[in-house]
Amino acid sequence: MSVGIFDSGLGGLTIWDAVTRARPDLAVTYYGDNAHAPYGVRTMDNIHDLTQAAVHDMWDKGCDLVVLACNTASAAALRRMQEAGVPEGKRVLGVFVPLIEALTERNWGDNSPPREVAISQVALFATPATVASRAFQRELAFRAIGVDVEAQACAGVVDAIEDGDMILAEAMVRSHVDALKRKMPTPQAAILGCTHYPIVQDAFQRALGEDVTVFSQADVVAASLNDYLSRRPEMERGGQSRMFTTGDPELVSARATQFLRRPLTFEAA
User: Fold this and answer.
1) Which of 153, 194, 225, 264 is catalytic?
2) pLDDT per residue over 217-262, tens digit each?
3) Residues forming the annotated binding site for substrate?
4) Which fold has domain 3-94+218-268?
5) Quick one: which residues bind substrate (predicted)?
6) Active-site choice (37, 70, 129, 243)
7) 154 catalytic residue (yes or no)
8) Which residue, among 216, 269, 253, has the nearest Cα to 50 in the 3D structure?
9) How far apart are CA 89 and CA 105, in angstroms?
10) Domain residue spans of the chain
């Protein structure tokens, strides 16, 4: 069995990279639905159906635990999949909760009632579908009160990053931050609610200013996953690390190598 990391495209590689660096002994399977990327402009039902099909394929390939390293998939599909019932011995987790736990200074699994926290003005940058779902605000409300969240849909940023056009991506980041600041002039913290965005985290920080704390998901999710596995050692047994894509393996391998600046080889899902 291996731990599975799913994303609609290349963004989840930021999570995969952090997890594999933190736990080089862990068998990790990465699965990119590149044939249908990006998810951020699709309908909620379409995203759910694509995510569900991919996760079931990952379970069939031996991943008992699958992390949806895609905020859009987490927003549109995670709760519906969990409510519909997960097969015995299987698990599916999202990436919102670890980030919210970090923001609200909660330990893993702290289910105490919502309380006031130090940060009251939060900027959320995410894909249009994630913003429309309001999933981040819903999960945050379970853990904190008195937090004002202003969301900015960052259309085009994912496409620019996947195309390797970092000049365009950084220009778009500046534009989206300017738009956010017109609605919330002085955020205390910013959530990068897409796994692609760590690639341009420095651009977000420069545009927001050094007094704004920027929360990015890669290291936070890796730490949370390590904690989760330490409580469930039976989910770490054996397995082989592999990388799958629904797209063209040769093309995806080349783009992934450029994306993380390390050699990566994908095979057909």
Assistant:
1) 194
2) 888 899 889 888 888 877 766 678 999 999 999 999 999 999 898 9
3) 7-8, 39-40, 71-72, 195-196
4) Rossmann fold (3.40.50)
5) 7-8, 39-40, 71-72, 195-196
6) 70
7) no
8) 269
9) 30
10) 3-94+218-268, 97-216
